[in-house]
Recover the amino acids of this structure.
């Protein structure tokens, strides 16, 4: 179905970032609007670092229905919204701004729930399962929070111990370990054998770091530790097969990239704005076509 022509009644949403021209979000959301025949349009707004609060103030001023937020603005937007959801408040990070009827703005974070939706699509359970999260940045923190609420037994491994500890605090009972504690030649030697963490002991391994993406860089975990019966998730969606996923698949582990998380976090934003269930098939097809064109 084609979307209605743009008019004075067209609702406008968009994404702010610096840079933002590379974003797949306009493709995903405009495909969704077209699939449902909604008189909405989604555009990319390049907003320089340090001016995120002005962009949030523009939402009611311009009559926007909302915004998505990407780097480097997520924390600044959290401070600029009138109200935050529990997830956004816990993370001090916002990826979705919703215009409220009274002219105020609500900030939410759909990344973590979108991650769980993606795992559910793949039939990967996390409740009661040991899950290793590599990294402690914004994406990792959203994943840790969601996993904790889903009942997973979470371990966070990061290069900076303080960052790992802060991220682990988002999930009940989670523990933090240095990245060097991961057993295998891909990591630095831990201080003692008692400190070693075997990635093979986890049902799910989530990579939220850029490690292994550049030629010659070591992988974040030793591939020899991976095995059949595990799921290895890399939050990167382009390229579809990262070196870690290729290595995991060769060891018999299930390999999942970040495209599902991208789709589901977008779908949750879509529903927050429109009140409609997102047409995931149309969004997935649009994303696949766009990524194929980028190869």
């Amino acid at each position: 179905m084609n979307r209605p022509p743009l008019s004075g009644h067209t609702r406008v949403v968009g994404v702010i970032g610096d840079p933002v021209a590379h974003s797949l979000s306009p493709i995903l959301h405009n495909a969704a609007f077209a699939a449902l025949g909604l008189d909405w349009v989604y555009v990319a707004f390049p907003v320089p670092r340090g001016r995120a609060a002005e962009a949030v103030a523009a939402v009611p001023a311009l009559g926007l229905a909302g915004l998505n937020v990407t780097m480097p603005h997520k924390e600044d937007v959290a401070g600029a919204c009138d109200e935050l959801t529990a997830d956004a408040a816990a993370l001090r990070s916002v990826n979705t701004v919703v215009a409220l009827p009274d002219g105020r703005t609500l900030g939410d974070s759909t990344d973590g729930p979108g991650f769980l939706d993606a795992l559910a699509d793949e039939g990967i359970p996390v409740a009661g399962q040991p899950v290793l999260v590599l990294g402690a940045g914004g994406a990792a923190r959203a994943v840790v929070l969601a996993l904790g609420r889903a009942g997973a037994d979470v371990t966070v491994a990061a290069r900076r111990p303080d960052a790992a500890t802060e991220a682990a605090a988002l999930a009940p009972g989670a523990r933090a370990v240095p990245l060097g504690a991961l057993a295998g030649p891909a990591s630095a030697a831990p201080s003692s054998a008692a400190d070693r963490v075997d990635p093979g002991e986890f049902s799910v391994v989530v990579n939220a770091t850029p490690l292994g993406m550049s030629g010659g860089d070591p992988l974040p975990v030793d591939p020899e530790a991976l095995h059949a019966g595990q799921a290895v998730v890399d939050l990167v969606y382009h390229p579809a097969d990262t070196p870690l996923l290729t290595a995991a698949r060769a060891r018999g582990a299930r390999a999942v990239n970040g495209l599902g998380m991208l789709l589901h976090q977008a779908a949750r934003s879509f529903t927050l704005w429109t009140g409609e269930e997102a047409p995931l098939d149309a969004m997935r097809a649009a994303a696949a076509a766009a990524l194929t064109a980028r190869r």
Remarks:
- The mean pLDDT is 93.
- The domain at 11-109+261-294 is CATH 3.40.50.10860 (Rossmann fold).
